[in-house]
Specification:
This protein is of the alpha+beta class. The protein is 28% helix and 24% strand.
């Protein structure tokens, strides 16, 4: 009985040393295999990173295992969409309204020795008639668009002319091709409304 116990005690240390030896051998071989696998994975990731111009997979290339984190490069491998073709130019739009009309006309006073003259001017949608006693003198202007004194003024007037006889006659041509006229005294008292003239 005593011999059996002593034999058992002799076997126990041997068995106790065998287990750490197996663990030691297994512990050495596992990191080596893991490092080899990580190195191969890192090389593949580094290759993808080189193609895409990114730094993805640099840590794996150094042999640091990251497990399944290598799937991170899927966005890197996506293809860039093609360039969209230019859209065709659409048809030209309708012609816009004409710009603001500006016009002036001048006529000398018959028999005047001083060079007196009358002028009619159209600007900013309004028509004026003016008089000056000399070619270099200042004008005295009269507004012919005052609806109380000269009613019926066409808002789309675009051209103007003036004539002097017994009165000062002013005509305007609208953008629709209609002619309107009014007249004032020689002293530019203007109280008559605008009347339409037969269209040319």
């Amino acid at each position: 009985m005593g011999s059996v116990v002593r034999a058992g005690r002799r076997l126990w240390p041997a068995a106790g040393l065998a287990v750490p030896l197996v663990l030691l051998l297994g512990g050495v071989s596992a990191p080596v295999a893991a490092a080899d696998a990580a190195g191969a994975q890192g090389a593949a990731v580094a290759e993808v990173a080189e193609v895409c111009g990114k730094k993805t997979g640099v840590a794996a290339a150094k042999g640091k295992p990251k497990g399944a984190a290598g799937a991170r490069g899927t966005a890197c491998t996506a293809q860039r969409g093609g360039t969209k073709p230019k859209a065709e130019r659409g048809p030209a739009g309708p012609q816009g309204p004409p710009g603001p009309c500006v016009d002036i006309d001048t006529v000398g006073v018959p028999g005047s020795m001083s060079g007196a003259e009358y002028s009619a001017a159209l600007t900013r949608g309004r028509t004026y008639v003016g008089y000056r006693s000399a070619p270099t003198g200042a004008y005295a202007w009269k507004d012919l668009t005052n609806y109380r004194q000269t009613p019926g003024y066409p808002r789309n007037a675009c051209g103007v002319s003036v004539k002097v006889a017994d009165r000062v006659y002013v005509k305007v041509l609208t953008t629709a091709g209609t002619v309107f006229e009014t007249s004032c005294t020689l002293t530019l008292t203007c109280t008559l409304g605008w009347a339409a003239v037969i269209n040319p």
